[in-house]
Amino acid sequence: MSTEKKRELSLDGLKTFALLLVFALHTQRGPEVTDPCHNAVFFYAARCSMPLFFMVNGSLILRKKEFPFAYYQKKMLSIVRVLAVWGAVTVLYRLLVSRMGVLQALKEGAKAALAYTDVVNLWFFYTFIILYTLLLFFFPKIKKHILKITAGLGVVCVLVDAASLISIMNGGFFVQEAVTQRLRLWTWLFYFCLGHVLSVYDLKKISTPLICCAAVLLTVLCTAGQYRLCWIVTEQVESNYVYDNLLVILWCASVFLAFRRCGRLSAPLARLAGCSFGAFLLHSYFVDALRLRYVVHGPWQSFLSWLALSAGCWALSWILGKIPVVREAVRY
Known about the structure:
The protein has 15 helices and no strands. The protein has helices at 3-27, 40-45, 49-62, 69-96, 102-113, 123-144, 146-169, 185-200, 208-233, 246-261, 267-270, 273-289, 292-295, 298-321, 324-327.
């Protein structure tokens, strides 16, 4: 198998892996941030999902030699199509499943398209719109100075995290809470660039077994650290504020590199990549319709619900992908 093919397999496998972890974030906790996790270990171990998702996209986009307007336009139209289609699906869902009135369902559909709903929250598309717009104007400079930009953004992340820790020590909360997740550009641009850096500068002097061991060890440390900091100290289960932490950055980097080095091991997950986005979109509706956050309790129930939800959504996404009229709705 060629080196390029292994890389494609590893990125496809990593994308599927990241989306599976997103499912865990949505099924392993209760409905409120002050409710305990059904499965705290799985929930906090899945926190690396969104950084990995941005790293995969950064690796794919920044490998290009140029970022012309035609490609930018194609990406924007694709995003608009997905937001419009799933905004419309949300209207139907609210009418038929939630039994809302027409006006309220239309409002919910608009909120879904604008990524301000808990049913199918596509906030990251708006982050990508900003990132792609930056690339349209500054792609050559970003590519030329990628190491300096990544290092600079990394320093910003660590400083923001330090400010959060100081705030928490003084009885406050994470400073990132003041900025909605889609606009934490210092974080997402950092991971976007980091994915490219780790793909180009593969740290070949560090052996694959050592990287895999580091990924496992950092997973344990970061899972325990999140539980301690978020649930025990701040008494809130949500941990999407920890992405700026240095240990979390090293964790995400080690998982990314482990997948990059083990292309063949990524092959089973890579085969699911074509249906992964559709499965992601569908799972949100099932979590809401089945009220999984309310009716599932305990680690085993929540794990089995995640397993069943993942299998069901991927199967349904595959079936929908075979129907020409709806194929584009489950692809991105």
